[in-house]
Amino acid sequence: MERASGARHWRGSVKVQSRNGYLSLRWSFRRKRYQMALGNVRDTDLNQRMAQRMAQRIEDDITTGNFDPTLRKYRPNSDKGDGIATWRLMDKFQAWKARSIDDRTLEKYRVLGRRLQDYWGDRGAANITPQDARDFRDRVLRKHMRSERTINETTTLLSACWQWARRNGYELGDRNPWDDMRLRVPPSQGCRPFTLDEMQRILQGFENGSPKVRHYADFVKTWAFLGARTGEMRALRWRHITDESCSQIWIGETLDQSGNVKSTKNQKDSFVDLPEWLSQLLRDRRGEVFDKDDLIFQSPEGNAIEAGNFNNRIWRPLLKELGIKYRRPYNIRHTSISHNAEAGLSEADAAQLYRTSIPMIRRNYRGSITDRPVLKDWLNINETQD
Fold first, then answer.
1. H or E element: which one contains 19?
2. How many domains does the chain have?
3. Is residue 173 located within the same domain as residue 217?
4. Neighbours of 85 (CB within 10 A)
5. Which of 188, 217, 242 is the last residue of a domain?
6. Which of 56, 68, 206, 365 could form a disulfide with 73 if both were Cys (CB 3.0 to 4.6 A apart)?
7. First-to-last C-alpha distance (Å) of the chain
8. pLDDT by residue (tens digit) across 75-123?
9. Which of 168, 188, 208 is the last residue of a domain?
C-alpha cells in the first residue's frame, strides 16, 4: 500500500511515498520520472518530516536551476559513523526539533542546512575540524548575516546539533568543532520602545482609521497591555479566558504561520489578570453566544491573523501616516515590558508574566525608558558663572 504526502501539483513537485513501511521520493522533471529511495528509513512521523525537507530541497533546486539529475547531491549517507554529511546531520536535528520550535526558526535551520551543503557538499560531519568551522563562519556566515550576535547564535546552534548527534550515537570525534567560536559583539543602541505618547497615537490611529485598520484596534490594544509574542497573540482563543467576566487570561500557546499550535517559545505559560477596560472589551467581542475554540482575534476574512500581512498592509502604513519611526509590531512586547519595568514591576514578576527569564529582562528591557543611572553634574557650571 502506498500513501503520498506533501504533493503539490506543479511541474517539479516532489512526493514523499511509503512502500512496505519505508520512505522514498518520486517526481517528474523535464519529461523524465525520478524515484529515489531514502535508504533504510522507516515511515515514522519524524522521518516523514525529514523526507519532506529533502523533497523541499529538491524542489528548491529545480526552481533555482540547481537540480542535480544524477541525484548524487541528494542521496543519503549512512545514518551512523563518519559518513553522514554535515547538511544531512542538520536535517535530522531539524526534524527532531520541529515539534518544539516555530516556523520561522525551522526556516533558519533549513537555510543553514542548505548553506552547509553548498559549502561542503557531502563531506562527512566527523571530518570537520575547528579550523574548518572557523572558515565556514568567516566565509559563509559573515557574508549572509548582518551582525556578530546572529553569527554567534548560528554557531551555537551548530554546536547544539553536534552535541545532539553525539548523544544519539553519531561518531563525530572527541571535539565539537563549533565550540569556542563566539565573536565579540560590539555594543548597539538597540530598538527603542514606543513612548507613551507614541503608543496612544498608534491606538488612536487604529480607532479612527479606515474599516480595515479599525478591524485590528482591539487586537492592538490587547497586545499593548499583554506584551505577548506575536504567535502568542495569534493563538489566543476564548477557552483561554478563565472566567465569565473575562478578568483573567492564560497564555501558554503559540500559533505558527502554518497554523500549527505549539507551546510558547520557552515552554513557559502565565495567567494574567486584566484591567476592567480590557475585560469589558473582551466581553463585548465575545457576546452571549460563542465557540470557546474560536480565535479571539481574526483577520477580516475570519482566519488567523497573518503577521506579515498585518505588518505590511496595516502597521507600517499607519506608522508612516502618523509620522512615527517604524518599528516592527513585535516592538509592542518590548514597549509593554519596558513601561511596566519603569512603573516598578520587579524583574521576577516581569519574567513570570511575560514568560521569559530574569537575565533576558535585565539584558533587553531594564532601564530602557527613563529608569537609567544619571551622572552627577559635579561641575556646576551655571552656578559657577553666576
1. strand 14-19
2. 3
3. no
4. 22
5. 188
6. 68
7. 95
8. 655 455 446 889 989 999 998 888 777 777 888 898 999 999 889 887 8
9. 188
Which structural domain range is residue 321 located in? 196-364
51 domain residue, yes or no:
no
Q: Is 300 helix (H, G, I), strand (E, B) or coil?
A: coil
- Would you say residue 309 has pLDDT above 80? yes
pLDDT exceeds cutoff 90 at 269: yes
What angle (nearest 5°) sits at the alpha carbon of residue 144, between those of residues 6 and 307?
50
pTM recorded for the entire structure: 0.62
Region of poorest pLDDT, from 89-93, 188-192, 239-243, 281-285? 188-192
With contact defined as beta carbons under 8 Å apart, do 21 and 43 qualify?
A: yes
CA–CA separation, 80 vs 170, rounded Å? Answer: 5
Q: Is residue 50 part of a domain?
A: no
Q: Is the pLDDT of residue 365 over 50?
A: yes
Cα-Cα-Cα-Cα torsion 61, 108, 144, 114, nearest 10 degrees, comes to: -30
Name the grid cell of 147: 551582525
Q: Counting beta carbons within 10 angstroms of the beta carbon of residue 11, is it exposed (0 to 12), middle (13 to 18) or buried (19 or more)?
A: exposed
Residue count (the chain) = 386
Task: State whether 169 and 92 are in the same domain.
Answer: yes
pLDDT at 382 exceeding the cut of 90: no
Q: Percentages helix, strand, coil for the chain, rounded to the nearest 5?
A: 50, 15, 40
Q: Taking Cα atoms as reference points, which of 188, 190, 189, 196 lies closest to residue 340?
A: 196
Handedness of CA 263, 266, 272, 277 (dihedral sign): negative
Residues 350 and 245 in one domain: yes
345 and 238, same domain (yes or no) = yes
100: domain CATH number is 1.10.150.130
